[in-house]
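Subject: complex prediction, re-run

Hi both,

The earlier run crashed halfway through, so I resubmitted it with identical inputs.
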Amino acid sequence: MLNVEKLNTYYGQSHILFDVALTVGQGEVVSLLGRNGAGKTTSLRSIMGLTPPRSGTVSFEGKPLQGEKPNNICRKGIAFVPEDRRIFSRLTVHENLEIGAIRERRNGPWSIKRVYELFPRLNERRHNLGHQLSGGEQQMLTIGRALMGNPSLILLDEPSEGLAPVIVTTVGDVIRTVRDEGISILLVEQNSSFACRLSDRAYLIDDGRIRFHGTIDELEQNSELKQKYLAV
Amino acid sequence: MDIAFVAAQFLNGLAIAMILILIASGLTLLLGVLGILNFAHGGFYMLGAFMMFSLGQWGLGGMWFWVGLITIPLALALVAAVVEICLLRPLYHRERLYTLLLTFGLAMVFDDLALLIWGRDFKTVPVPELLSGAVSIGNYGFPLHFIFIIVVGPVVCALLWYLLYRTPFGKLIRAASTDTEMLGALGVNVNLVFTGVFALSAALAGLAGLLVAPIRSIVPGMGLEIFIESFIVVVIGGMGSLGGAIIGALLIGQIKAFGILALPNFAMIFIYLVLLAVLIVKPRGLFGEKTV
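This time it finished cleanly. Structure:
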């Protein structure tokens, strides 16, 4: 459903992504793994139109996306869950969720009620402001906010980062729940063991280039590859 | 100085404050949401006053003031929307300096436009008939028009509060003031939010202009004067903070009203002193946030 080919992205003069290519199929969870600074976040930002690629193609459900503004890309069914969560700090939890669905609704199963069922903690905190939330609560809220737009693909940037192990487990459960709804996920992670437990396939990225692509089993069996591109 | 005089002077300061609130709230919204300092903001205030002058000339069967009260803010909102879409929008992705230069140029264009249309002479507008009386406070007559301004201010503040905290558009404005890029990634056309905020700020400034039209002389250049005062209000209150702008305006209003008694020709000195004091104690203003 998502098809990325020969993506080249720059920040000003510096060339960040080199011919990045990847695909995500319907209902699939695909990991994009790599070290800090390898180009994972830039890949997501390029797909979302936040850092438009200089060349290459991105197509989604058969239609080209490159050149579109982020708001139009969102309305086509792609949600972006940023690494730093980017909760609207002066809005309440409830208002943050409403913003996620403020544009004309795509038809889909997600509502504020369902998000609260998935994250009971958010319901308890519904009248709190964004900046009063803990890191884990913010992560739940940013995922919930993305779901409110009824996306068919979620770009999930390092959801486990900086969270206590028990919260990471919760986030993992949520990713499975979301996948079981038929929503595809492109999961960016440094925490490869977390990502591999959840994913069908994985890509390894380093220095802005895709170095490996295969199933999780293939990756697990290739310890040399893991050592080279993932070891800290 | 008897108590009635002090009371009258206090109300005077309150009226000044209400005008400053209308202008500073727009200015602070623009800073908070669009991240721009709009030098041309006072231009909309000036245009509001001049437009009221023209309506007064036409008379409109005695209804000129009340017609202007509704139509002038709407007309200026429209003008502002066109300005934002055609001139500002192409500059948002450039360095902030370009926007600053553009609004500075716009301020001058507005002034020259007013010169061209209305001429160089001071213009005066009569006080509308319904508001031409006075309320007696002790031995002093306090003009009814000032009372009207003191009433309009809080009403507009309440409407603004409702807009920001109880409507979907207000939610978007508050969200845009923290993170416009994320708002766009959630499917919102941020450009439309910007246009809306710019139009709203111009309507508020125009409302202030038309309200003061009957009680001061109208002249090109009045926009820059009010811009400086309301910018001080915004800095004192904390850039981007609406509550701060309101407190700042109330403070400056009283300082102007009573400062003019102490040093009739140098009342602005007190304003700058307060500005200095606030900036030394709280560099981000009274209600400024640490992270902007």
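Residues 165-180 of chain A form the longest helix (16 residues).

- K.
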